[in-house]
Amino acid sequence: MKNSLTQVTLSNGLKVFLKEIHTAPIISSWLWYRVGSRDEVQGRTGISHWVDHLQFKGTPQFPANILDKSISREGGSWNAFTYMDWTAYFETMPADKIDIALRLESDRMVNSQFDANEVASERTVIISEREGSENEPMFLLGEAIQQSAFRIHPYHHEVIGDMADLHTMTREDLYSHYRTFYVPNNAVMALAGDFDTQTMLGRIKELFEPIPGGMEPARLAREEPMQKGEVRLSVEGPGGTSYVQVCYRFPSASHPDFFPLSVLDSLLAGPSNLNMFSGGISNKTSRLYRALVDKELAVSAHGGAQATIDPFLYSITMTVHPKRTPEEALTALDKEIERVKAEKVSKEEIRRAIKQARALFAYGSENITNQGFWMGYAEMFANYEWFQTYLDKLAAVTVKDIQRVANEYLVPQRRVVGTYIPLGN
Amino acid sequence: MTNFKQNSAVSLPGPEDIHREVLPNGITVLTRSNFNSPSVVVSGYFGAGALFDPDEKLGLADFVTSALMRGTKKRSFDKIYNELESVGAGLGFSSGVQKSGFNGRSLAEDLPLLLTLLSESLTQPAFPKAEVEKLRAQLLTGLAIRVQDTSDMASMLFDEILFKGHPYSRPEDGYPETVQNIKREDLVRFHRDYFGPRGMVIAIVGAVKAEEAVRQVKRALGGWQVKGQKDVHELPDVRLLKKTVSKTHRIAGKSQSDLVIGTNGPRRRDPEFMSATLGNNILGQFGMMGRIGDVVREKSGLAYYAYSSLSAGLGPGSWEVSAGVNPQNVKKATDLIVDELKRFVQEGVTMDELADSKANFIGRLPLSLESNGGVASALLNIERHNLGLDYYRRYADLIDVVTGEDVLNTARKFIDPTRLAMAVAGP
Q1: What ipTM, to 2 d.p.?
Q2: Nearest CB to A132: which of B4, B37, B304?
Q3: What is the pLDDT of residues B243-268, one digit of tens each?
Q4: Scanning A97, A272, A393, B196, which has its CA 20 to 30 A from the CA of A76?
Q5: Which CATH superfamily groups domain A5-208?
């Protein structure tokens, strides 16, 4: 069955995507706001994520104790995510129950109360969330790397924010952030599933169009200057295992080089899975696994590419083998990086990367929530066409492209190398 | 309020669209077609679990299942994964206490390859010496990471307290010294003694017709015969705690403590299962983690996560509350949780709470069955616990008949707030 896609912008600027899929009696509704940790200045780090928590704390129409039950009662699954570039809310519901989700989202776009007591109790919840993350060596290392990779650009802090700011931000800070960024003309709504497009569009207009558009929120635009020289850092902490993370500068998702780099990632470290609701595949025949894990320098090696608005990082993470040192693992990694720069990859390796991407797309399309996710997600850093033409763009990548981007991006002068040094018990 | 017309057929799995067939060698095949996406899932289980591990070689079943794909009599480790990964397919094995299992997926066009590799790994693993040693280092690193993980260590300690003297008290992945004790010959022997087609179940869900799926399983695994395949041990009964037992495991330098508090729970096949699972939803799942989430997270702001869970399988289950809190708040959170457990067994649940949770369970069923993996788990669940092919069609009725009194009786049967296991791991 062909799934029809409709794209409409309402009079208040809210962009709406509707994709009919009649495979199961389910609808997934997503509301995306163009706000995330990249919109935060020092003193307010973590504010976007905290606002996302407070969006579950009630409006006059849906008070806190009603709101958190209203979706679950109808068998819905729902959550919210805050990232560097965006914040998203979704509800996946039995098709005949979706109205409650639409009413809830239109209501909390403007009417959340940010009650002072709720702000206070959520402060300690978020501090606890951060403390849980601090238990993890890779969180500590990743945070240190991000901070040294971005001195100017607001990608420099973790989405959860710095502990100092979590202690000091006020209710007024949070409310003002909410009112500034939660306007229809700064949002994208995407629904996928078992509905009739015209009926659904009518209902969305009815609920969302009365919300007036606001000022287009300005986003921070502090470009990170070119890195001049390799940065090396270490983090010490409890544990018995060393980790090395190497981060290279990666272009924005809308940059043409994103695609050859994605193929390069696939053959170096196995394909990065961009689906949110469908797992990836193993990487045991990737170049890095063969060179690092098979050769017993590391017990695991993974690559991570992310789709972002501004240039971010491509990370390679190695769990160092207990009998090896971080330096030995890094030397072996560097040899592989040099190889991919010096020698052309085979056409077969590219074909393989494309087949892997095709399979990951198929797994993702089993799930209506994931299909709803993609429409808005792609809009956050590029547009939906980016997603629709993704496989074609990968298929157009040549051997020459791979070698060029390897030489352009995988350079030691523009990377941060972080080591987690375990202090034992 | 607009009425949204449903255009799709209600599509819960049932007897006319699940195909079940037992092959002559004892393998049960379950399939359900779904042509909405060009992919397919292969999932299943067999009877070689950690129950068979000797104490001094704990982690053996886990080691064996992890080593199955490290090389077979026909293909090397690299060749196996090269074939899988070249087509974007995945396959993996994991061990459990009673059963071990596998999970794979691929594009439908690559199903024959997936089944061939599954069959080779199950029936002809070679356990190459060099690969066994590489794997051992990886397993030991995993254990070194586990010993630093507050959540893993609290869970492990909880099982040690609750299931003292019972096989469930042991971690399936063993301890560093027991994994060091395992020799290659142990892997070979374990595989020879406990692997075989009898008791094995395989579910195939996705873009393939039932008869074609069965034909392919027959081709790949229909000829597998094992003489003297050993049977699953009967599990002993658990000894109930006589009083609350608390233990703390220290991990220096951590920012947060994890705690697990709980008691015994029903088996999946016990008549109390439905009322226990609904009660558990009210206690620590519904909305933002139920009553537990409400007092620990929402009202007190003590934790990012605080929830209850019911673990009900073939053997005795557990019913536990987990939370991650600042080390200074362990006592406060523990008191709040125990108070909630007391209230739960004294007052039971309200009619509204029960109605909400029933609606939640019935409403979310189609969501859990939308992906091929979700349907495959459902088919295995039916088979493992003998629920009947029409189970998901009857599900709403089974939920509907549970009363508030049932929930209260079940809560009282299993939860005694003066006899709890309490485990904390943190700085």
Answers
A1: 0.91
A2: B304
A3: 999 999 999 999 999 999 999 999 99
A4: A272
A5: Metalloenzyme, LuxS/M16 peptidase-like (3.30.830.10)
